[in-house]
């Protein structure tokens, strides 16, 4: 999760989030090159003596047409690649259904029989020592580490959004519609998120907690709940 005074992204815990951070850095380098060029030209115009010599209009038009097109290509190609990677879901190992309510989440593990539960935020007065205020829930989502998890997202009442920044996941929950996304947690840990769509008075009080655990721990947890 984010630290105090943190300016960058949270540490990536999935391949998709790693790609997103790399693309962000790539786009910033392109923007820095453009700003440096513009600053250099402005400085040159302000400090150098003006000249009456002109350049052929066709040469100028060729440069200011091709150069921006090349810049757009350097941004578009990696962006489209990541978009297709985020949209592609190949043979998931586990399917999780997340249903948004005002103001809590319901989770259903569709690969298991009768494995479903509601997830509410723990009030500050009942929060155990060392846990995060407004982010901890009474029932966490447990997923196996290194497994592709498909998440089917919908809502029961109003618009919600299921978002976990460290995993690179953010999908709108729309009543009457099923949206899907996927993630793969690369290491064990606890990842925090929140509803990212304004959904009413208690919008700030429906956090998301995903815990990535080794496969034997996940199997023990799922068998204890479904039995």
From TrEMBL:
Its cofactor is Cu cation. It is a multi-pass membrane protein. Binds a copper A center. GO terms for cellular component: mitochondrial inner membrane; respiratory chain complex IV. One of its GO terms (biological process) is ATP synthesis coupled electron transport. Keywords: Copper, Electron transport, Magnesium, Membrane, Metal-binding, Mitochondrion, Mitochondrion inner membrane, Respiratory chain, Translocase, Transmembrane, Transmembrane helix, Transport. Pfam families: COX2, COX2_TM. PROSITE patterns: COX2 (PS00078), COX2_CUA (PS50857), COX2_TM (PS50999). GO terms for molecular function: copper ion binding; cytochrome-c oxidase activity; oxidoreductase activity. It is found in: Mitochondrion inner membrane. InterPro entries: CcO_II (IPR045187), CcO_II-like_C (IPR002429), CcO_II_C (IPR034210), Copper_CuA (IPR001505), Cupredoxin (IPR008972), Cyt_c_oxidase_su2 (IPR014222), Cyt_c_oxidase_su2_TM_dom (IPR011759), Cyt_c_oxidase_su2_TM_sf (IPR036257). Residues 91-224 form the Cytochrome oxidase subunit II copper A binding domain. It comes from the Eukaryota. The chain crosses the membrane at residues 27-46, 66-84. It catalyses: 4 Fe(II)-[cytochrome c] + O2 + 8 H(+)(in) = 4 Fe(III)-[cytochrome c] + 2 H2O + 4 H(+)(out). Residues 1-90 form the Cytochrome oxidase subunit II transmembrane region profile domain. Belongs to the cytochrome c oxidase subunit 2 family. Component of the cytochrome c oxidase, the last enzyme in the mitochondrial electron transport chain which drives oxidative phosphorylation. The respiratory chain contains 3 multisubunit complexes succinate dehydrogenase (complex II, CII), ubiquinol-cytochrome c oxidoreductase (cytochrome b-c1 complex, complex III, CIII) and cytochrome c oxidase (complex IV, CIV), that cooperate to transfer electrons derived from NADH and succinate to molecular oxygen, creating an electrochemical gradient over the inner membrane that drives transmembrane transport and the ATP synthase. This is Cytochrome c oxidase subunit 2. It comes from Parus major.
């Amino acid at each position: 999760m984010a630290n105090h005074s943190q300016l960058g992204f949270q540490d990536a815990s999935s391949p998709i989030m790693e790609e997103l951070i790399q693309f962000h850095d790539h786009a910033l380098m392109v923007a820095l090159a453009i700003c440096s060029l513009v600053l250099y030209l402005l400085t040159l115009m302000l400090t150098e003596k003006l000249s009456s010599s002109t350049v052929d209009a066709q040469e100028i038009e060729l440069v200011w047409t091709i150069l921006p097109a090349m810049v757009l290509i350097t941004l578009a190609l990696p962006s489209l690649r990541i978009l297709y990677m985020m949209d592609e879901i190949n043979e998931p190992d586990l399917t999780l259904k997340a249903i948004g309510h005002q103001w809590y989440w319901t989770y259903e593990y569709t690969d298991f029989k009768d494995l479903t539960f509601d997830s509410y935020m723990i009030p500050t007065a009942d929060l155990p020592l060392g846990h995060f205020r407004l982010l901890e829930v009474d029932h966490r989502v447990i997923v196996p580490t290194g497994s592709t998890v498909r998440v089917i997202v919908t809502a029961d009442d109003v618009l919600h959004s299921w978002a976990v920044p460290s995993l690179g996941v953010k999908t709108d929950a729309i009543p009457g519609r099923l949206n899907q996304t996927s993630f793969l947690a690369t290491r064990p840990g606890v990842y925090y998120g929140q509803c990212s769509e304004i959904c009413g008075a208690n919008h700030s009080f429906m956090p998301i907690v995903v815990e990535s655990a080794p496969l034997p721990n996940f199997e023990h947890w799922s068998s204890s709940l479904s039995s």
